[in-house]
Design goal:
By secondary structure, this protein is mainly alpha-helical. The protein contains 10 helices and no strands. The radius of gyration is 25 Å and the shape is elongated. It comes from Shewanella phaeophyticola.
Length: about 260
């Protein structure tokens, strides 16, 4: 059975007023914000974010505003929740209509992914490698994988402002993992020969991670030949000089970079 005339009129009326309701709610939230009424502003923006996923650009700005509320209040977990929301809706939008994503939305995605990458990297760095190594190493590698996932999203956004820093951080995680493995707690029940064999095993396990760190730092340093030089590219040069001093002398590289640019 078809809809009644009254039902159709009510349905059309609801459809017509939805954009007005959305605009009114956004305006009210902005009014509260300007008036310094943080609680009402936060509540109204949160309601907007959960009710109106479109227009995409406005919704992403509202999600970013929510993250800023919690950054200012020092509630990191709630801030990270909204960063994850930004990335989740970015993925959905790219699948449905990638053309709707403009420069500002790319920046918001980069901000969110980078902040989450740094948060996971801090968790990774805080995990100590204790005996038995296998158990604590798995926890550390799991945390590292989460950070890598977010940093790879930063690289995928391809925003020059964040890419060298994310690349540097990626390399440093591999370097730190190799270093932490070499400095990990040794089992107490090893005799001198067994301990020597254990040390050799650690070196074999750590070596690929150190090599990976060098490779990533090299890829970052090579941006200098693309006229991309910032502190993170420079830091990669510095780290390469420390990790492979025979191959990457800082002074020589600096001259080469200057010559390549000019």
């Amino acid at each position: 059975m078809g809809l009644s005339r009254r039902a159709i009129i009510n349905y059309c009326g609801q459809r017509a007023t939805r954009p007005l309701k959305r605009e009114a709610q956004y305006t009210a939230a902005e009014y509260y914000l300007k008036a310094g009424d943080r609680n009402n502003a936060l509540t109204t923006f949160r309601s907007y974010a959960k009710t109106y996923p479109q227009p995409f650009d406005v919704a992403q700005e509202v999600r970013f505003k929510m993250s800023e509320f919690y950054r200012q209040s020092g509630e990191a977990n709630k801030q990270y929740y909204w960063f994850r929301q930004i990335l989740s809706f970015d993925r959905q939008q790219r699948q449905s209509d990638a053309n709707a994503i403009q420069a500002r939305q790319v920046e918001l995605g980069s901000i969110a992914a980078f902040a989450l990458g740094e948060a996971e990297q801090r968790s990774f760095a805080a995990i100590k490698l204790n005996a038995p190594l296998q158990k604590s190493l798995k926890r550390k590698q799991d945390a590292m994988k989460k950070a890598i996932n977010y940093y790879q999203q930063v690289l995928g956004f391809q925003l020059a402002k964040y890419v060298p820093h994310a690349t540097y951080n990626l390399a440093e995680m591999y370097r730190q993992l190799a270093s932490d493995m070499m400095n990990s707690q040794r089992p107490n029940d090893l005799d001198e020969l067994a301990l020597e064999e254990y040390e050799i095993l650690l070196e074999e396990l750590a070596y690929p991670f150190e090599e990976k760190a060098i490779d990533i730092h090299i890829s970052n340093a090579q941006r200098a030949w693309e006229d991309i030089v910032d502190q993170w590219v420079d830091k990669s040069f510095t780290r390469l000089a420390e990790m492979s001093p025979a191959l990457y002398q800082k002074s020589e590289l600096t001259h080469e970079v200057i010559d390549a640019i000019h």
